[in-house]
Amino acid sequence: MIRWRIIRPFDPWQSPLCTCPFKYTVNPYTGCGHGCLYCYASSYIKDFFRPRPKENILINVRKDLQSLPKGSVVELSASSDPFQPLEEKYGLTYKVSREILLKGHKILYTTKAPNILLKYKDLLEEFRGKIAVAVTITTFRDDLAKKLEPNAPPPSVRIDAVRKLSEMKIPVAVRIDPVIPYINDDPKDLEELVKIIADAGALQITSSTYKAKPDNFRRLTDVFKDLREKLYQLYYVEGEYIRGYRYLPKKIRYELMTLIKKYAVENNLRFATCREGFTELNTPDTICDGSGFIRRTINKS
Ligand code: SF4
């Protein structure tokens, strides 16, 4: 039995609806500074919004790499943003990435700050083909994003980075995740967002609706006070309870995902849902987390 120190098999908090194939994950930082109202990881990690670097991370990464099977996919990061503000000070994501890639493994970055990744041109060029990026963009409206994700780079910056990464032939999936009723679910806005994403050169859209936990629901409705009652009704009265999360009623979730899929198809993008239980909506041969582009050779056009 392997005793992992810091690189661990991905555990989607036991969600029966997670369709991610097997991968590993490592978080160079504990907690996250982006401060997203809807963040799920904050329910599991103490002092989540007081991010700090992990101690002895490089020593532990090197030890774990001795046990990692050849050609593994490692996600940075499943429960914090690898390019959150601390990265500019400590550069741990860069250092950890080099160690992993030099050993012949592959990396999936999941981030709201792809502009910071772009600073690592050496990494992107040296390991092209072994890096894929999933960029979360919940709205194209910078003012709305400032409320939802107060410390993350604005969507306009993220979209620009998607374009630059795509031009460098780094495959990018964009996560429209979460979609929150009354906040970022306007069909016209979603249609425009998908178009902007396609124009920027992304290859895939992955989407998911907001799932309520007590702490993220409190944060969200403290900011969007006038929506408290309507959201409570949808999530806590009419919605479903699945493994620790309050979900929207299935019919609403299905309609939202079907709508975004329609826009994705119209723009020739692959589509997948995340933790919704609607795998029938996924484009064949498409992996929800965006790692399909580095797991095997698939048509990236
Ligand atoms: S970027 Fe991700 S991990 Fe960081 S606060 Fe936002 S949702 Fe949470």
What does this structure look like?
The structure is a single chain. The protein is α/β, with parallel strands linked by helices and 301 residues long. The chain has a single domain, classed as pyruvate-formate lyase- activating enzyme (Alpha-Beta Horseshoe), CATH 3.80.30. It is built from 12 helices and 12 strands. The strands form 3 sheets. It has an 8-stranded mixed beta sheet with strand order 1-2-5-6-7-8-9-12. A two-stranded antiparallel sheet has the order 3-4. The protein has a two-stranded antiparallel ribbon with strand order 10-11. Helix 8 (187-199) links the parallel strand 8 (172-179) and strand 9. The chain binds iron/sulfur cluster. Iron/sulfur cluster binds next to loops.
Summarize the structure.
The protein contains 12 helices and 12 strands. It has 301 residues and is an alpha/beta fold.
Spans of at least 5 consecutive residues with low confidence: 297-301
Helical run tally: 12
**Helix content range of the residues, please?**
25-40%
Shape: globular
Give the CATH level 1 class: Alpha Beta
Number of domains: 1
Largest beta-sheet characterization: 8 strands, mixed
Strand order of the largest sheet: 1-2-5-6-7-8-9-12
Cofactors and ligands present?
Answer: iron/sulfur cluster
- Structural category is alpha/beta
How many beta-strand segments?
A: 12
Task: Give the C-alpha Rg.
Answer: 18 Å
| Overall pLDDT confidence | 95
Distance between the termini: 41 Å
Order of helices and strands: EEEEHEHHEHHEHHEHEHHEEHEH
Query: What fold name goes in the CATH topology slot?
Result: pyruvate-formate lyase- activating enzyme
